[in-house]
Amino acid sequence: MNATQGSAGAGVQLVRGLSELAVGKDLLVCDIWGVIHNGVSAFADSCAALARFRAGGGIVVLVSNAPRPFHLVRDMLDRLGAPRDAWDAIVTSGDITRGAIAERASLPVFMIGPGRDRPIFEGLGANFVSVDEAGYVVCTGLFDDETETAETYRATLESLVARDVEMICANPDLVVERGDQLIPCAGAVAALYEQMGGRVLYAGKPHGPIYAAAFDMGERLKDATIAHDRILAIGDSIHTDVAGAVAAGIDVLFVARGIHAHEVMTPGKLTPASVNEWALRQRVRPTALIDHLRW
Q1: CA nearest 17: which of 44, 45, 36, 41?
Q2: CB-facing half-sphere around the CA of 72: CA atoms within 13 A
Q3: What is the pLDDT averaged over residues 230-255?
Q4: Sequence-distant (≥ 6) Cβ neighbours of residue 179 within 8 angstroms
């Protein structure tokens, strides 16, 4: 059973727990925000499911589009109450972005994003300049994601497009959950920039580099090669988690009680009919779907 772009008549398996898919898997590549926490607190069932998989000998690599180094994501998980026995390692789009920044060390940079994301530049000697002087741009998010949208930045983006300035998008997510709200992310700004003719390098999901890094991490932890059919991705975004897993050629479990809950759960719960009605409308489809992650 594989993640697929599928025929119009193909259905999506509705499962009750991770245990139905865990047999024969050595590595879980698991999203963080929306799967094991909502930005306010950790989900006990989800953490317990990942810990159960690890107790059976599996490896769990958390893969996040967070635009910051992995150790800051680790510290946030600690604060939210996610136990460390739920995962083995963390790979973030922030880590991938840092590599891209290091490769452009000779160029001045303009940052679009809040001050809390500045650690992404730590130790890299970045030369920060105004938007008119930038050799490239790093977008980690919106300056104020509670009041702004991507459209807020249109004038700034127009000036960058006119000079053919490359943007590095440190978080390809379009939105993320914060409690019961959906908050715009850097991916929304990057998508607008592309629509306007700008060049964008995406550091995180659904793009290949972050999956390659996660697979490499899993194999190092297991000290063995892991075949793609023994890897399962888990996530709550059709555009990043599912699309990325399909492109990488691995199975994917889609968590419905995330950013797409209003689309998939009708009325307020999952049924085989609502699942497949939703699945038939998607460009890419998950291997299986669950309401929330549990064993």
Answers
A1: 45
A2: 16
A3: 94
A4: 38, 39, 40
Tell me how far apart the alpha carbons of residues 53 and 27 are, in angstroms, rounded to a whole number. Answer: 9
What letter represents residue 174's amino acid? Answer: L
| CA 109 to the chain's CA centroid | 24
Residue 155 · residue 112 · CB < 8 Å:
no
Left if phi > 0, otherwise alpha if psi is -120 to 50, otherwise beta: which for 243? alpha
Return the closest-CA partner of residue 226 out of 22, 53, 28. 28
Alpha helices in 116-195 (DSSP H): 154-162, 186-195
Joined tokens for residue 139: 């977008």
Report the 10 Å Cβ neighbour count for 5: 12
The one-letter amino acid code at 99 reads: G
DSSP string, 142-161: -SSTTT--GGGGHHHHHHHH
Q: And the tokens for 111?
A: 């940052």
Instruction: Supply the DSSP symbol for 240.
Output: I
- Element of type H or E holding 216: helix 208-222
Mean pLDDT of 68-90: 96
Short-list 31, 9, 26, CA closest to 238: 31
Token readout for 91 is: 């790979």
State the CB neighbour count (10 A cutoff) for residue 248.
Answer: 22
Model pLDDT for residues 157-192, shown as the tens digit of each residue: 999 999 999 999 999 988 876 777 788 999 999 999
What is the rounded average pLDDT for all residues in the chain? 90
Q: DSSP assignment of 38-74, as one string? A: -SSSB-HHHHHHHHHHHHTT-EEEEEE--SS-HHHHH
Give the position of tokens 């890897």: 231
Q: What is the pLDDT of residue 11?
A: 67
Three-state SS at 220: helix
